[in-house]
Design a protein that fits this description.
heterodimer; A: 787 residues; alpha+beta; Aldehyde Oxidoreductase, domain 4; 3 domains; 28 strands; B: alpha+beta; Ubiquitin-like (UB roll); DNA polymerase, domain 1; 5 helices; 15% strand; globular; binds FE2/S2 (inorganic) cluster
Chain lengths: 787, 163
């Protein structure tokens, strides 16, 4: 592997700028003449707009202009779209309601943007926004998905009668019903997956710069996928054609899915820059982030899992209602369908599966992918059901899982996915021994002696990463292909730039991608630079989400490197008068195998550019591009174990230990992979114990709109984690990588809730706050006393 | 409007600002030092932590005018002559940062914490002291490791110097 190559724990190249305060985030950008935007937002969950008066606001000090949705519409700016078409089981297309970047006649959630104020300072813009008078005629609001489907519920979009967006299914309903009818035991459970706010620490921001002389726009924005942003803003929102729009996503302070989407603010800032003739910058504050960043999860499901007399699962039936909020966000339709129900087989051989998913509009923030996107919901549902089943059947949770594990690959599930490789037993065993599962009974007894309730719980997750084969996702309704691009430029002095369509917002690509190049060419890490995040530099790319940058983004670099190598070898063979097939690349030099002839890498590069002596017919230069389209998803999997101790007097859960055993395939930089797992675990533990977006169900006001109300995991809420890897290389891509970005968030919630319910002996919903745990214990006590 | 003069990273600086301008905005917008970040509106996240007269403060929770005449150190001011401060180096070594957004505040908090405890730091104390700094990326695991390692480095080094 070498000191800097694949597999090395290299400290990150990008750290220095972040550690010295020299990171360049969107809000750090200053361009000449720049002014500041503040958005006027709806204070109501659902209302008709009967009038907007901006004259007082326009007269406020420092105000350049105040613009509303009618003006935006008149200028031909389009509505926001959902880019993944889902058809209901009756064949009808999903019912997409109009989402205007600035609301014109109706607002549908608290925070819906109505107008933009541009002023000399943020403070002046905010002052002016306060005197914009919008006349609203309030309408009844509906917040929960279940209530939105009830007869007589407030109607949110005329396009979607009964607030139903689609009613979709997957799998074999008849076979599943038959399995349930014939089962020796059926476990039935209702699963709630709590709504979350992604909360990257950098709030979203956008800076729109219109250059009149060139009729050209530049957008600096907090995006995980600047090329997708440019494509969508050009093709659908009519902001400007692609050649007239440059999107730059500089340093981005975390995304977790919430910065995939193109939001109203970047579109409006670009448009407002043209309207006002000044560059317009908007930076979200935290409350605005809670009010407008796409939320995650919010599923309500009913589950039936059927077992035969030997405790083998013979059928799984799932009925899910997913809340998509007030508008369909960019990939919202894919999350509760193809990213969710296709993972319902988990790590288990289940002959018959059927899932029905209804998605609904409510008067809440749009819901879309958040770290894991559909897979945490599937894993939580399955692993909670397995746990409850094990308790009902009176077998150990490990035994029930072992009995049902898939053990030979490739394995075709009844819900589309074809698992290519895995070893579920290996991670289960590793996790159990790391957690000293066998010693738990003694630890529990010891805790009991101190008046504490101990519990232990496991979760065996699988997820699908590296999205995804373009043709396959196209056939399932995706509006885009999900390949990735790379360009490798070898400079005349031999240093290298890699241009990638992946985007790093914490993942460390500037290091890991360079490690790949160093590994292949034997050049020092310091001579490799990774370029990303600018549509003027990188031609095209699909960006970073779904743990795809290693499996897909790096595979594209591999393909480009293959081409570079081929040309470099031709040049070297020519210069050293050897046969091309005898050239090997080692330690930064091209060598003729079996001889002492050698040509330093930089001399070969120089020769490519001087072009004084190249093979006949060869073009000068050394730069190659590749587009890589994956052949399959990848399937990271693992086993997580949580051990908790609960104080029955306070209901507080203390995590005694958290063990993660993961199979991520081959690993480029173990330190970075571990960091990804730590972060994912923290978010999953946050979901299980602390986090929940709450609305007032009558008024539709967001109750958790600051860090005073929304409980983010903090350092003293979490333990240090015990990690291990049991890797089976992924056969579906050249590096054997599966992806590690989301696993922690996917596998951890059920492990924790299984541990807590093990400790307290009653069911509980997420987040298992001290209050809820305490109440559950109180409610259970009289019954326990009566028994 | 007020004119605020203060010492920042050892240099006297001044700028005009509204009476209501927060120190963090003054540092970012008027002084152009954008390493200090804003992550919340309610003094919860710690992305804005700087040192004021030697103590760590959340620069979003005081007005620029309140800081007039004081000596402020920001994340840009703790490395010396291109050498990373031991806390910065430990964050790099132990992968204590991912997106980097919380990092300036984390580092400034950690420096202050290590200084205050005179070498007496353990994991529980570090986790407790980090309660006012939110990181969404790292799960804190490697931040805690980095702080403990920097603590060793700094106090080990000072012990050696004393010998
Ligand atoms: S910005 Fe100061 S604490 Fe969050
Ligand atoms: S490194 Fe991203 S928030 Fe801490």
């Amino acid at each position: 592997m070498g000191m800097e190559g694949i597999g090395a724990r290299v400290a990150r190249k990008e750290d220095k700028r972040f550690l010295t305060g020299k990171g360049r985030y969107t809000d750090d950008m200053v361009v000449p003449g720049m002014k500041y935007a503040y958005f006027v937002r709806s204070p109501h969950a659902h209302a008709k707009i009967t009038g907007i008066n901006v004259s007082a606001a326009k007269a406020m000090p420092g105000v350049i202009d105040v613009l509303d949705g009618k003006q935006l519409q008149a200028d031909g700016i389009g509505n926001l779209i959902c880019g993944w078409m889902i058809h209901s089981k009756d064949g009808s297309p999903m019912k997409m309601g109009a989402w205007r970047p600035l609301a014109v006649d109706t607002v549908r959630y608290v925070g819906d943007a109505v107008a933009i104020v541009v002023a000399n300072s943020v403070a002046e813009a905010r002052d002016a926004a306060e005197v914009v008078t919008v006349d609203y005629e309030e309408l009844p609001a509906v917040i929960t998905s279940v209530a939105a489907l009830e007869a007589g519920a407030p109607q949110i979009h005329p396009e979607a009668p009964g607030n139903l967006i689609f009613d979709w299914q997957i799998g074999d309903g008849a076979a599943t019903d038959k399995a349930i009818a014939e089962a020796a035991h059926v476990t039935e459970i209702e699963i709630l997956n709590n709504r979350l706010s992604p909360n990257p620490m950098e709030p979203r921001a956008a800076l729109g710069v219109y250059d009149e002389a060139e009729d050209h726009y530049t957008c600096y924005t907090t995006s995980q996928n600047p090329h997708v942003a440019r494509l969508v803003m050009s093709a659908f929102y009519n902001v400007a054609p692609e050649n007239k729009l440059r999107v730059i996503a500089p340093d981005v302070g975390g995304g977790f899915g919430s910065k995939i989407y193109i939001y109203p603010e970047e579109i409006v800032c670009l448009w407002a820059s043209k309207k006002t003739g000044v560059p317009v910058k908007w930076t979200s504050d935290r409350t605005e982030a809670f009010l407008t960043d796409a939320h995650g999860r919010d599923h309500v499901s009913k589950v039936k899992m059927a077992f035969d007399k030997d405790h083998r699962i013979i059928g799984l039936k799932v009925d899910t209602i997913a809340n998509l909020g007030a508008y369909m966000s960019l990939f919202s339709s894919a999350v509760p369908t193809y990213l969710y129900a296709t993972l319902l087989s988990g790590q288990y051989a289940i002959p018959a599966i059927h899932a029905n998913v209804r998605t609904v509009y409510t008067n809440t923030v749009p819901v879309d992918a958040y770290r894991g996107a559909g897979r945490p919901e599937a894993t939580y549902l399955l692993e909670r059901t397995m746990e409850v089943a094990a308790r009902e059947l009176g077998v150990s949770p490990a035994e029930l899982r072992r009995k049902n594990f898939i053990r030979s690959f490739p394995y075709q599930t009844p819900v589309i996915m074809n698992y290519d490789a895995g070893d579920y037993e290996a991670s289960l065993s590793a996790a159990m021994s790391a957690a000293d599962w066998d010693g738990f009974a003694a630890r529990r007894a010891e805790a009991e002696g101190r008046g504490k309730k101990r519990g232990i719980g496991m979760s065996c997750y699988i997820e699908a990463c590296g999205i995804a084969p373009s043709q396959a996702v196209g056939s399932l309704g995706a509006g885009v292909g999900l390949w990735e691009s790379a360009e490798v430029r070898v400079n005349a002095v031999g240093t290298i730039e890699v241009l990638t369509g992946s985007h790093s917002h914490g993942q460390g690509h500037e290091t890991t991608f360079a490690q790949l190049v160093a590994d292949r060419l034997g050049v020092p890490l310091a001579s490799v630079n990774i370029v990303h995040g600018d549509t003027d530099k990188v031609q095209m790319g699909m960006g970073t989400y779904g743990s795809r940058s290693g499996a897909v983004g790096m595979s594209a670099i591999v393909k480009a490197l293959d081409k570079v190598e081929m040309k470099a070898k031709k040049i070297a063979a020519h210069l050293m008068e050897a046969d091309e097939s005898d050239i090997v690349i080692e330690n930064g030099a091209l060598k003729v195998a079996g001889t002492d002839k050698t040509l330093p890498w930089f001399q070969m590069a120089l020769a490519a550019y001087t072009a004084h002596n190249l093979p006949a017919g060869m073009e000068p230069g050394l730069k190659e591009t590749a587009f890589y389209d994956p052949s399959n998803f990848t399937f990271p999997a693992g086993c997580y174990i949580a051990e908790v101790e609960i104080d029955p007097d306070t209901g507080k859960t203390e995590i005694i230990q958290f063990v993660a055993a993961d199979d991520f395939g081959n690993i480029i930089n173990p330190m970075i992979v571990e960091g990804q797992v730590h972060g994912g675990l923290a978010q999953g533990i946050g979901q299980a114990l602390l986090e929940e977006v709450r609305y007032d169900e009558t008024s539709g006001q967001l109750l958790t709109a600051s860090y005073m109300d929304y409980a983010m995991p903090r350092a003293d809420d979490l333990p240090s984690f015990k990690l291990s890897h049991q890797n089976t290389p992924c056969p579906s891509n050249p590096l054997g990588i599966k992806g590690c970005g989301e696993a922690g968030a996917i596998g951890s919630p059920p492990a924790l809730i299984n541990a807590i319910t093990d400790a307290i002996g009653v069911e509980i919903t997420m987040p298992a706050t001290p209050l809820k745990v305490w109440q559950a214990l109180q409610a259970a006590q009289p019954r326990m006393a009566a028994e | 409007m007020a004119k605020v003069t203060l010492t920042v990273n050892g240099r006297t600086m001044s700028g005009e600002c509204d009476d209501r301008t927060l120190l963090v905005h003054f540092i970012r917008d008027k002084l152009g030092l954008t390493g200090t970040h804003v992550g919340c509106d309610t003094t919860q996240c710690g992305a804005c932590v700087v040192h004021m007269d030697g103590k760590s403060v959340k620069s979003c929770s005081i007005l620029a005018v309140q800081a007039a005449g004081s000596s402020v150190t920001t994340i840009e001011g703790i490395a010396s002559q291109g050498e990373l401060h031991p806390v910065q180096a430990a964050f790099n070594q132990h992968h204590g940062l991912q997106c980097g957004f919380c990092t300036p505040g984390m580092v400034m908090t950690a420096v202050d914490m290590i200084n205050r405890h005179g070498g007496q730091l353990d994991e529980v104390t570090v986790r407790h002291e980090l309660e006012g700094n939110i990181c969404r990326c790292t799960g804190y695991h490697n931040i805690v490791k980095a702080v403990l390692s920097a603590n060793e480095e700094m106090h080990g080094a000072s012990r050696q110097a004393a010998e």
